[in-house]
Amino acid sequence: MPPAFRTLTTAAIFATLAAVPRPHPPLWLVGLAVWAIAALAIPAAGLVLAAAESGAPVMLPALLAITADSLLLAAGLTALALALAYPLARAVTAPWLLLFVMIAPLARAIGALALGMSPGTGSVALARLAGDVPLAALLLRARLRTRPRSWLDAAADLGAGPWRRFVVVEWPHLRPAYLLAAVCIGLLALGDATIAAVAGGGKRYTLGLALREAVLLDAHPRRAAAIAAIFAAIALPSAWALARGLRAAGRSREGRDPPPARAGLAILAVCAAPIAALVVPAVTWPLGQGDALLLRQLPATLAGAGASAVLAAAIGCVTGLAAPPRWSPALLLPLALPPAVYGAAWLVTAQQLGWGPGSGLTFVTLLPGQVAIAHAGATAAFAGAGRLADAARDLGAGPAARARWLWWPLAWPIGAALALVAFALAIGDAGAAAFTSGPGGSTLAVGLEILGRGGDLGAVPRWALGLGLVPLLAAALAALLRRR
Amino acid sequence: MTLSLRALTKSYAGRLALADVGVELPAGGYTCLMGASGSGKTTLLRIVAGLERQDRGSVLLDGRPLDDLPAERRPVHTLFQDYALFPHLGAADNVAFAPRLLGVRGPELTARVRALLADVGLDMSFETRRPAAMSGGEQQRLALARALAGEPRWLLLDEPLAALDRPLRAGLRRLLRAVTRRRGLGCLHVTHDPEEALALADRLLVFGDGRLLASGAPAELYAAPPSLAVARLLGEVTPEPGGDGWLRPEHLRLCPPDRPPLQDMSLGTYPNRHVLSDMSQESLSVPLPSEPARASGTVGAVACLGDRWEVEVEIGGRVHLSRIGGAPACAPGQAVVVAWDPARVLRFAGQPA
Q1: What is the pLDDT of residues B50-93, one digit of tens each?
Q2: Beta partners for residue B3, in sequence order
Q3: Is residue A192 within 8 Å of A338, Cβ to Cβ?
């Protein structure tokens, strides 16, 4: 981690921790109000106000047809991902699963095409499943760590075979994790615009893609608002489910790894195939104009993603450590709203405020999702830290002493890891940034998507591979930090 | 420093956790709080520590109210049930946490930490070890050293021995007693284990449903509990044969039908011999009655409890328990006579056996 990056992370987390002792209800209420206004109310209000203006009708039948098609695809992908997740969860450890989850959807979509698949449902399914199956496996593995071994032993002792034991004991235990995974994967599939646009080749529609076209191609805020309303209706119960699942994940840290099953390694190989397919074209095609174009976008993308990641990690750590658990659904709501919804809402809002697209707007758009991710990670990592705070207070540590001697040493490695996760997500995002980065794309991922649709055969796989390897680099950096 | 609790009341979501609890605890005394789960013991401890705020009432130390002091400024430290050791700090740094906050530094800090670790039986090899690399007993010792390091006036202990196995628990119980006595420290110790409470306490407070049910010297409360609930919390009771009172199983003696009763086992089998030194000689010399009460029955079962034997005797369709110091000379199905001192029968108004 560069010294400046670390110093900035340190200063941000430390200052926030020192400033916000626990508990301090009035200050937290102000924080929640600011969050609700900035992350939720302003973009929603902008979209609603734009939709209220006179314009073309929504064309409800077409919208319902897209919704049904999108739901069908999401349901199919979710079912497949959940079925494949169990053996993968038994075979691969959590850090490796997280690595695959963090690979940018755009890189997976370009990788699926690089495998020689033609654009369409198959390519979309492979690109989605390459990330969705590891995500479901990650959630499932957390639950598998607390599988009730004594109940399984008791069932076996009473004569239940493997299938009966699974149905009677293991399935009821795993059901919350399956439910959480289904919610996450369903939301990702419904809201996806990037994979559908690149790997779908116009043959596959999702609600996220419909939203993108409503705003960017058709300039139809009413339809955009209608689609966003569908997403909001799904997001509210999903945020609640996410918060519940997160608490369960936090409780599973003390468990033991499940017995390994090698069959899952074959599924991991399938998930790795799209990225592996990028290697040959990436190294064999000569450098061209596309490379120069993307190279120019790299510094601003790195700076924007880095700054938003540091800020998000700091806020996420503070809320994960100290915010009351009942606030989790509100803090996780941006995670339940697809990036495309945020991008569309902020673009429409910015247009009304006279604020042009660019790095600033992309920063504001990406931040709530990154904060939600960081909050989720910190909540799971700091589960049970309240008793340490009680112990520190009991031993005489005031707010500043607690921040210095307890929270900071506990929070900074987790904060740094969360910043890396948020950074990897931001740098690979093309879902929200497609709306906010402006014509030509001011971020690397959006520029890459534009070049991909234009058919650049050299730069696209090369840079997509680079995006795909960002999580690996982040993981290596995290491992280095851990050793230190 | 005398710790005074005055009319403490606390409720959670409409459920009363503590109801008007008031008690004076003398300086340097060892007080145990007993009660079933959910009886308000831990709530009381957390209120004294400042980790919870009472709805009503007051906590005073030497007459000075602590209510407006945050937890970090109260002269009390807690030994938590799960120890709450800081996972990112080694043993020495865990112990040094409170002294550092008090401004102790350098050689003085090192010496204090080493002395405390030695005091609780942890040698220098533990200094850099993290809590995760220590056993349950070692963690408990470390937590005790950490709590003592800030030189509290009162030590609050929240079921500190609950997670340990029996032999370890006995050893650490003795350590706890020795260390706190040596320092003249006032202790408020929450437990649900009667053996632990009777062994450690100078004074016993028994809680039920958030209310203080009984308060007094452990031996006195054991011998004359004010209610059946208190009697049961402090040890097992068995119905008085043919009567409406209750007896401790060690007060129900056995003998063959044609012989006089065995010598009274109550003194020898009083829970844990080591508490005998805490009891006055007067309480030990209860004279045996010349005419003990007697009843005939049949032995139902005989079980060895290690240092004692338990015999189930069926009399008139009811099962009665007798505990004796050695192996009984009787077998299931055999006729026996049980005898007891009528003076030891426990009677509670409205709670017949």
Answers
A1: 988 999 999 999 999 999 998 888 999 999 888 889 888 899 99
A2: B25, B61
A3: yes
pLDDT at A150 over 80: no
Q: Which one, of A426, A322, A307, A319, lies nearest residue A374 by Cα?
A: A319
A405 touches B: beta carbon within 8 Å: yes
Q: Which domains does chain B have, with CATH numbers?
A: 3-223 (3.40.50.300), 236-344 (2.40.50.140)
Check CB contact under 8 Å for A388 and B86: yes
Alpha carbons A214 and A222: distance in angstroms, whole number: 9
CA separation, residue A461 to residues A273, A419, A431, B237, B292 (Å): 13, 26, 19, 80, 98
Structural domain boundaries of chain A?
3-483
Running DSSP on this structure, what letter comes out for residue A167? I
Distance of CA B241 to the CA centre of its chain: 29
Q: Whole-angstrom Cα distance, residue A222 to residue A211?
A: 10
Are B72 and A401 within 8 A, CB to CB?
A: yes
Q: Check residue B283 and give its pLDDT.
A: 34
Read off the pLDDT of residues A190-233 as tens digits, 9 standing for 90 and up. Answer: 888 889 888 888 777 888 888 888 888 888 888 888 888 888 88
Do A292 and A478 form a contact (C-beta atoms < 8 A)?
no
Distance CA B3, CA B227 (A): 26
Q: What is the pLDDT of residues A310-343, one digit of tens each?
A: 999 999 888 888 777 777 888 888 888 888 888 8
Q: Which residue of A lies nearest to B85 if distances are taken between CA atoms?
A: A388
B60, β-bridge pairs:
B4, B65
